[in-house]
Amino acid sequence: MKVAGLSTLPPGRRATVSERLGGPLLLLAAVALTIFLLLPLGALLLGAVRDDAGAFSLARFAEFAATPGMATAVWNTLWVAVVVTAITVPLAFVYAYAIERACLPLRGLWRIIGLSALLGPSLVGAIAFIQWFGTQGVLKAWLGETSVYGPVGIVMATVYASFPHALMILVVALATADGRLYEAADALSASRWRKFVTVTLPGARYGLISAALVVFAYSVSEFGIPKVIGGNFPVLAVEIYVQVVGQHNFGRGAVVALLLLLPVLLAFAIDWWVQRRQQAGLSARAVPYRPRPDWRRDLPLLFYCLLLATAMLGILGMAAYTSLVRFWPYNLELSLDHYIYGLAEAGVLDAWLNSLRIAGLTALFGTPSVFFTAWLLEKCQGGPTGLRPLVRALAALPMGVPGLVLGIGYILFFNAPDNPLNGLYQTLAIMVVANIVHYYTACHLTALTALKGIDREFEAVSASLKVSPFVTLWRVTLPVCLPAVLEIARYLFINAMTTVSALVFLYSPATLPASVAILNLDEAGELGPAAAMATLIVLTSAAISLLYSLVTHLLFRRHQAWRQGQR
Amino acid sequence: MAHLEITQLSKRYGAFVALDGIELAVERGEFLVLLGPSGCGKTTLLRAIAGLERQDAGRIVHAGRDISQLSPALRDYGIVFQSYALFPNLSVADNVAYGLNSRRADRRLIHHRVEEMLELVGLPGSQQKYPAQLSGGQQQRVALARALATSPDLLLLDEPLSALDAIERVRLRSEIRSLQNRLGVTTIMVTHDQEEALAMADRIVVMRGGRIQQIGGPQEIYRAPGNDFVADFIGRGNLLDATGAGPQHVRIGDLLLRCAGPAGEGHRQRFYVRPEDIRLHDTLDQGENSFYAHVVKCEFLGAYSLVTLQAPTGDARPLVAQFSANYLGGREIRPGATLRVGIPAEHLRPLPEAA
């Protein structure tokens, strides 16, 4: 049988319309990523190497080097990041080990508590540590003469905030182990310690490296924590804020931003390079490792988890408690005053609604853009040569760009009077776009993993059946990848809800988001309403996470017939 | 002109030559098998015919239409992959109807067509099941039904049986062959399994290093391999270095044997003999082309035994003979024994060097 309509094709036609759309659409994605990522970063670079008259000069760097205190800020940023990494990674490793490699009761609960810091802005930890160890703190005596306002507080709050990031990576690294290696070690009667050193650690080494680099980069680029709890301790991230918001010195801000970008970009470049060598760590023949109960290992680990979980709940709980206490520490009566005052006077409600709007729009527009671009990249052909590597590089780049740096780039690029996109500046739209770009990489990787997981011949089969690739995307690829799509939406929503760094330069009074409002309330000394706002954000994120779990649960139940063997 | 004609098809991946000037003509209704070791270019050739890989040079003409530069969707074929590539979220019926829907055909017609196709592949009544609920062999049958539902002019099978277990593989291969006979659809299959190729093909194309080594019917390929690669790849073969000694005789080591082909006087040439063509004689039988050989090893393999022999062939390589249990009739062969064996002249064949 001949295909209907084939004879009517114009002689020059070599592909169907939908087959030819892939290239141009991917080009569109590349253009969008260029405008909203590459050009702002370029503007940042230009801003740093041009003097006030617009001529090329390295004067700003010289000026920066001569500014008193700058060298201290650089040094502080680095040593704090190293200390944070050295504390967080071992803490998270043992916690992940307890979850994945021991037989603990309530594993799911320990995991959720371990990740709970993700639900709120990083400021939550800072506020809670002030309440615990600050001037009027409950446990002030624990620190002796040392003040929490400064490196001690920054390290504590950053460890708390970066802990879940390290935990996620290490849980994955420890979850996939080849049981046969342990059986072989047992057969050779290797000691517990020997097994740990020769099998467990090497198996998790890429995870450990990755976690260390992620935590290091997190600490370097973290801005809210040193702002709130750092006192007069100078670090680079706060320095940018001071230069840009306090002194309106964009050029100097750009120079500091470049300095911040350097170590973070370097960390992620190393991580990328290390991960590439990791391939084929686990062969298809591997037998998953199943730990057997052993109280000598499980009991100490259970105690450890209990201790850390208590501490983390204590931090989160303190923020919530602060929001409910009438006047810390003199009147500990519980009330909703801060919420009522905040909602009525301090604009808490507006900020919260703004945040909901931003987070909702980020998830709504970000999820399809990310997934569709990943699909074009992975499953379609066409477009000029070099386009695919370019899009891949653009998608990987945001991981190495701190939010503050992206924010400054956006100011310099979109606020320029001769930029036709100038109208976007200080709108809700630009904040949504900044969020999507800022969190692009993680979402892109999630989409890519899901797309690589399905049969790579689906597109070939549909082409042979004369079905458009877009129909197959809609009827097959999207339903199969739905869990990943939901995961991306949740990730974008929660991060857009809690982020401070990229948005702190982009909001206008009308679009002030909740997370930034915390910062402003704290600056005004309104710790109660700030805590109320933080609690509100945590509750919103928790509700979204719960909704996500519910939807995926229902989805898997409904698709039980065909999702067998998946997940 | 042949139904599918391929001329001077070439494809490189960097320095690796996947296809090197392929010339191939496939007749209408033929079952053609592309056979070769991994990396020989057989899959690349199939994917080039499907339009999934674009050749660097050369032409593909299908039913009189030059399809060389057309995208897969503009060519006319159905394809089945080793991985089945069934859509997991769609029922069997929706999978089979996948290519029918886009033509907005009548629902009842589609329903009927699905029923017909599932009956054809031996899976009636499984419309509502999902692929994950079927065995591998059943899934591949559904994939076959899906590929054939749109009545394509050409059926491409990319190692369709490789993912199945041994019993299912043998069952499905005869089913595919009889289905193909019944529908008369021109079929090209890729496989690395010589037994599969011999059992299914009208013609076999043996490939290596991106080149075609030999094209021929199963009998021809097996009985008269075109070169030593084909002789070694299809079945087992004993390769022997010989020197011509008269019009019909060759000298192989200490042996003077009569052979099938003409042998030039003093000319060095390679000959081969299939293990199952070696005869077992009585110890005192002095028949033509017979000689003594020592048994090095004897492997009992059920229906037949493989016997490794040390013979005066002037070669370090031992001679391998295959005796069916039937042929031996209970006679036992022990290592260390001396046997009188013979190579019938018609089975001692000259061999051109590999291309």
UniProtKB/TrEMBL annotation, chain A:
Q: Where in the cell is it found?
A: Cell membrane
Tell me the keywords, alphabetical order.
Answer: Membrane, Transmembrane, Transmembrane helix, Transport
Where does this chain mainly localize? membrane
Which residue ranges does UniProt annotate as crossing the membrane?
Answer: 21-49, 78-97, 109-133, 153-175, 196-218, 254-274, 301-324, 358-377, 389-412, 424-442, 530-556
What is any one of the record's Gene Ontology cellular component terms?
A: plasma membrane
Q: Which CDD domains match?
A: TM_PBP2
Q: Which InterPro entries does this entry report, sorted A to Z?
A: AminoethylPonate_ABC_perm-1 (IPR017664), MetI-like (IPR000515), MetI-like_sf (IPR035906)
Could you give a single Gene Ontology term from the biological process aspect?
transmembrane transport
Report the coiled-coil segments. Answer: none
Q: Does the keyword Ion transport apply?
A: no
Query: How is it placed in the membrane, per its record?
Result: Multi-pass membrane protein
The record's listing under SUPFAM superfamilies reads: MetI-like
Work out whether the entry's keyword set contains Plastid.
Answer: no
Give residue ranges for domain ABC transmembrane type-1. Answer: 74-271, 352-548
Q: Which family does it belong to?
A: Belongs to the binding-protein-dependent transport system permease family.
Q: Which NCBIfam families match?
A: PhnU2 (TIGR03262)
Designated name of the protein: Iron(III) transport system permease protein
Lineage of the organism = Bacteria, Pseudomonadati, Pseudomonadota, Betaproteobacteria, Rhodocyclales
UniProtKB/TrEMBL annotation, chain B:
Would the keyword Disulfide bond turn up in this protein's UniProt record? Answer: no
Extract the NCBIfam families matched here: PhnT2 (TIGR03265)
Answer whether the UniProt record assigns the keyword ATP-binding to this protein.
yes
All residue ranges annotated as the ABC transporter domain in the record: 4-234
The source organism is: Azonexus fungiphilus
Residue runs in coiled coils: none
Record keywords, A-Z: ATP-binding, Cell inner membrane, Cell membrane, Membrane, Nucleotide-binding, Translocase, Transport
What PROSITE patterns does the database record attribute to this sequence? Answer: ABC_TRANSPORTER_1, ABC_TRANSPORTER_2
One GO cellular component term: ATP-binding cassette (ABC) transporter complex
What InterPro entries is this protein classified in? AAA+_ATPase, ABC_SmlMolc_Importer, ABC_transporter-like_ATP-bd, ABC_transporter-like_CS, AminoethylPonate_ABC_PhnT2, Mo/tungstate-bd_C_term_dom, P-loop_NTPase, Transp-assoc_OB_typ2
A GO biological process of this protein is: quaternary ammonium group transport
One GO MF term on file is: ATP hydrolysis activity
Protein name as annotated: Iron(III) transport system ATP-binding protein
